[in-house]
Amino acid sequence: MSGLARQRWTLATVLVVPLLVLAAPAPLQLAGVPPSWAVLWLLPWALMDGPLSGALLGAVLGLLLDSLHPGPLTQLPVLVLLGWWWGRLGRRRAPIERSFSLGLLALLGTALLGASLALQQLVWGLSSPAAVHTLLAQTLLTGLLAPMLCSLQLLLWRQLVPGLRR
Amino acid sequence: MQSPGRGLRLPSLRRLRAAWPWVLVLAALVGVRLSKGAFLSDAYALLSRPFWPGSAQSEWLRAAQQLDQQTRLDQLEADNRRLRELLELQAGSAELLSAPVISRQVQGWWQQLVIGRGSLQGLASGDAVLAPGGLLGRVVSVTPSTATVTLLTDTSSRVGVWVGRVRHHGMLVGQGSDRPLLRFIQQDVGVRPGDVVTTSPASTLLPPNLTVGVVQSVNEQAVPAPEAVVQLSAPAEAIDWVQVRIKAP
Q1: Closest residue in chain A to residue B138, using alpha carbons only
Q2: CA of A74: which chain B residue's CA is closest?
Q3: pLDDT tens-digit map of B28-85
């Protein structure tokens, strides 16, 4: 675990995610579906802080978000997996900071998260035709917002936490 | 003594000229008479328009009508309660608590509301949540100051309902979209678009006879039993305050 997680105040920014989920700002919705705020926060964090920190914060996010939603569906396993995967990608020599790369990673991550939720709905007998609509809308919206929001977060982490690897 | 030809003389042209305005007045009066005073009525309407009964009076009438309906509703509810007690069904003694909607997720993977009242105000899991129009959902979890409400549209929502016209029970199943699905147990239920769906009169989980929605379309070919799409009567997207029916202690 590197510099980001050691700064307690940066760690506290994870609380913004459940607050945004609860606030559900209407201007940032597509056909009534909000973006995946967890993916938008976790992607830059894991890219900067590595696989262990990414997986741990993915678990923290998963626990926080699962507490907001009653029912058997969980986001925790996929967020842990995404945090670990993006953390490993961030350890590569060439830093991932191009808008297209960030958008594509967020798009893939949201699609994976949505697919896992749709699969869980199927397993628990809660499947519905609206799942496809939700998955597509959320994936598209998160992929569109990621280049802007994730780039800003990457810049912010670098400016505010000196001594980061990149 | 006058000669007999003197009385038959026509009036002079000068006199006729002097009398023509009176002829016009007479013609106008005859016209008014023949039109049954249309001109007078219209003129009166035009002049008296500022003094016509305004919106205030229509509001009084509406308020009186509402009072009348409310009184009748109270009487019917009292009758209903007495009859239910005789039948030993759920008494339905409960009070309504208003609660603000502080978070709303009506689309997406979950369809839920978070309301700003919790266990400190007497809310408990399972309480019915109402809005103008009818039933909205049920409380699934409470904290001291908030409560999470699962909407009828959520995929985990299953509510027993009743179609009064055909006297059939059904199960309202959330589909993750605006319109839940009504599944019947029997064949040939005879439900058609426009039928009103309410909570079951014999329900023990929810208050009986609450309006849920209106049948929008029916699929008679569904297997094993017909299904209907229901348009909910309480719009969750546009409601800022709800009422929670909390059980009396």
Answers
A1: A70
A2: B109
A3: 888 877 877 777 777 777 888 777 766 666 777 788 888 888 888 888 887 887 787 7
Residue B92: the pLDDT is 53
Residue B140 with chain A: CB contacts under 8 Å? 70
Of the segments B10-19, B88-97, B183-192, which one has the largest average pLDDT value? B183-192
How far A68 CA sits from the closest chain B CA (Å)?
8
User: What local confidence, expressed as pLDDT, does residue B53 receive?
Assistant: 65
- Domain positions in chain A are 3-24+31-160
Percent of chain B's residues with pLDDT above 90: 20
Query: What's the gap in Å between the CA of A13 and the closest CA on chain B?
Result: 20
Q: Do B110 and A69 touch (CB under 8 A)?
A: yes
ipTM of the complex: 0.84
What pLDDT digit, counting tens, does each position of B98-133 carry? 888 898 888 889 999 999 888 888 899 989 999 888
Identify the H or E element spanning A160.
helix A130-160
> Taking CB atoms and an 8 Å limit, are B103 and A24 in contact across chains?
yes
Own/partner contacts of A144-147, CB < 8 Å, gap of 24 or more, are A144/A103, A145/A28, A145/A35, A145/A40, A145/A106, A146/A39, A146/A40, A146/A43, A146/A102, A146/A103, A146/A105, A146/A106, A146/A107, A147/A99, A147/A100, A147/A102, A147/A103
DSSP B40-73: HHHHHHHHHGGGS--HHHHHHHHHHHHHHHHHHH
**A129 interaction partners in chain B (CB closer than 8 Å):** 175-177
Interface of B with A in 201-240 (CB under 8 A): 237
C-alpha angle A82/A85/A91, rounded to 5°? 135
Asked if A128 and B156 come within 8 Å (Cβ–Cβ), the reply is no
